[in-house]
Design a protein that fits this description.
- The chain has one domain: Alpha/alpha barrel (Glycosyltransferase).
- Helix 1 packs antiparallel against helix 2, helix 2 packs across helix 3 and helix 4 packs antiparallel against helix 5.
- It is built from twelve helices and no strands.
- Helices cover 66% and strands 0% of the residues.
- The protein is globular, with a radius of gyration of 19 Å.
- One of its GO terms (cellular component) is plasma membrane.
- Its main location: membrane.
- It comes from Donghicola eburneus.
- It is found in: Membrane.
């Protein structure tokens, strides 16, 4: 008798897009703090750090035991874009820690900034290298590697790295414009996004919202023309994303649904910040309403993820 082939360990299929959950949780943490919900933000911060450390430990173990599986994700045209979610998570954790533990935040920010710079260059090099990418491979998730650089100045300026923050801001803003053209071309002129990628449409909201937050940090908190433009662009892309929200109703849960969380967190933070700078009660209350929606989104996504893990729906071959 011949031996039956053994099933590949589930660890080999632990997905790098799982780190998108940390982006949502860290965004929630920062939004809670910005809204004055200090105790809740500390609880969310502890949860964010615990989730990040757990995911990082598991993925490191995967890299040690199943390096070919990691290499396959790196070669995947969609999953490749999620690798910088690791470094962006560090930058966001540093942002959340900055108000209460600035020294720790500074060290984490430095590690995150170095990792983000390296991963950005590595992903961009992969994109323009010898591989053949097709238009159907493009999705809003492609914003993550390059546009994620705009996250760095939000904490970097206050932590004492203004010039480095300018470099990250420039990189993120330039590639936002470049990738926006590519993504819109793909969405308009080619096949619709596959069902499981539809939630990534929410990512369109994040670049201008985070860009607004970064810009007001870099320019000393002045609500100038560029700041207003970036916030207005956030609202434009929010409207566009809402027109596609109906497509989510019949989709089974997948990790891609976490793409809904960080854009809403960025929108919440941008609205609260705009309200404070413009002394606008309407924006303040809109930010509070967005925060409640964000809490509901993260809560639902957390429960759905736990249920999917219990059913064994995660870490399975595609």
């Amino acid at each position: 008798m011949t031996d039956m082939p053994t099933a590949e360990p589930r660890l080999a299929h632990f997905p790098v897009p799982f780190f998108a959950s940390v982006l949502g949780l860290s965004g929630l943490t920062t939004a809670l703090h910005a809204a004055g919900w200090t105790k809740a933000s500390l609880v969310a911060l502890a949860m964010t750090i615990a989730v990040f450390v757990s995911l990082a430990a598991i993925y490191t173990l995967k890299a040690l035991r199943h390096p070919k599986a990691v290499a396959a994700e790196w070669q995947h045209p969609v999953k490749l874009a999620f690798f910088p979610a690791f470094s962006i998570s560090l930058l966001l954790i540093a942002t959340a820690l900055a108000p209460t533990a600035p020294d720790m935040a500074r060290g984490i920010w430095l590690v995150g900034a170095l990792a983000q710079a390296g991963l950005t260059l590595a992903v961009l090099s992969n994109w323009i290298g010898h591989r053949t990418f097709k238009t159907i491979h493009i999705s809003p998730a492609w914003f993550i590697p390059a546009v994620g650089n705009v996250v760095a100045p939000i904490a970097g300026v206050g932590l004492g790295f203004p010039e480095t923050s300018w470099v990250f801001f420039a990189a993120g803003l330039i590639f936002w414009i470049v990738l926006l053209v590519l993504v819109m071309n793909r969405l308009i002129f080619h096949d619709p996004l596959p069902g499981r990628m539809v939630p990534t449409l929410a990512i369109l909201i994040a670049p201008p919202a985070v860009g607004f937050l970064a810009w007001v940090q870099l320019n000393g908190g002045v609500l100038d023309g560029l700041a207003r433009f970036l916030y207005a662009a956030t609202l434009v892309f929010l409207g566009l994303a809402l027109t596609q929200a109906g497509k989510l109703r019949h989709l089974p849960f997948g990790l891609s649904h976490w793409a809904l969380s960080f854009p809403v967190a960025a929108l919440t933070l941008a609205t609260l910040r705009f309200g404070a700078l413009a002394d606008s009660p309407a924006h303040h209350w809109a930010g509070q309403a967005a925060l409640i929606a964000l809490c509901l989104i993260v809560g639902v996504l957390t429960l759905a993820t736990l249920r999917a893990m219990a059913r064994g729906d995660i870490c399975r071959p595609e």
